[in-house]
Amino acid sequence: MQLTPSSPKPGTGADHDAQRDAHRRAAPDRGRTLLGPALQLIHTGQAPTRSALTRALDVTRATAGAVTAELEALGLITVDSRPAGGGRGRPSHRLAIDPAGPVVVAGQIHADGLSVTLAGLGGLLDPPVHLPLPAATDPVRMLRAVAQAGAELARGTERRCLGAALALPNPVTEPDGTALAALHFAWPSGTPVADLYDVEVGRADHGPHALDPLPTAIANDANLAALAEYRHGAGRGARHLLLVTSGHRGVGGALVIDGRLHTGSAGLALEVGHLTVDPQGRPCGCGNRGCLNSETDPDALFAAAGLTPDPDRPLLDQAGELCRAAATDERARAAVEHVIDRLGLGLAGVANILNPDRVVLSGLHLDLLEAAPDRLRAVVAERSLWGRSGRVPIVGAELEHSALAGAAELGWLPYLADPQSVASGWVGR
Length: 429
What we know:
alpha/beta; 12 strands
């Protein structure tokens, strides 16, 4: 339980420190119950020094020292004894993620390819490997392809591999892990993607430095992107963060409230892509017309410009180029403004319902924001009560690979909750 410190009393600095420490959280087990909260603070950059960690946890210096020593012994962080200056009293030790520490495999399936990387703590990703979709796009073959690609990366590192997590471009139910409305690949609704991925990861050879069996997890890509931006990107410091994104195709959304994803009763909340913004608009794969999904994705942008994208190049890259061309090309500018107006309608509607304190845009929507920031914000302000009050900051995502970074967060989740499981769950091969 958090105790409230009493008012400071006159005395020496040492007396004051002793009085303050006496009111802080007791730690009879020398802080082991604080390992998870401490690691999360270091992981998200909120505790770069031991003194910052001491304040954030509201514990004594001795307890903070014991906590950081154990995290260091687990191979998760480094403690630099060279003092970091700038504060009152004794200089503090620097805390950082151990660059040789363990990793998880983070993977992503998107509409026209696969991506995999290795991810340490602190939101640190190795350069991702991007692969084309397999010739057959049934769920087993696709999940096998991404599992094998991740296993190849794990075999190539000397760092311990603790898990494998995957971002999918469709809703994933909780807690059973089935895919619903897999519109891009025509997977059967209710495909048990979590179980299938677990099987394929189990069959792949991850090398001698991986847990056996390797824990797996799977979730929707927009949800994971929002979690990553909240912890490491443009969402830091927000209480109610709304993320809206358009990747290679379609639109996704997610809401983070006080650090937790709002996923609804079964993991299916915030399907903003199927919000109608033009009843007479383009047909959507869900059977409706004029969904945000079909009005503000790369295909919609090219249709508005009357252009056909190159089928041999990534669609999202080409859409970004078209947005940047709006600065000098009249046809591109008209297309960008058309799509921005539809996006603004959708954002205003969602903002009216959710009242977020920050909206983060990523993927194509980030390119649209950068191409015409004043126009997008004006549409939202005109159509949203909260926008008119100036209380809906709209910002661009900061992470280059936010869905992959979110998959990494998912893979690290059990170890952030219980850092000691890094050691207790380790089975070398």
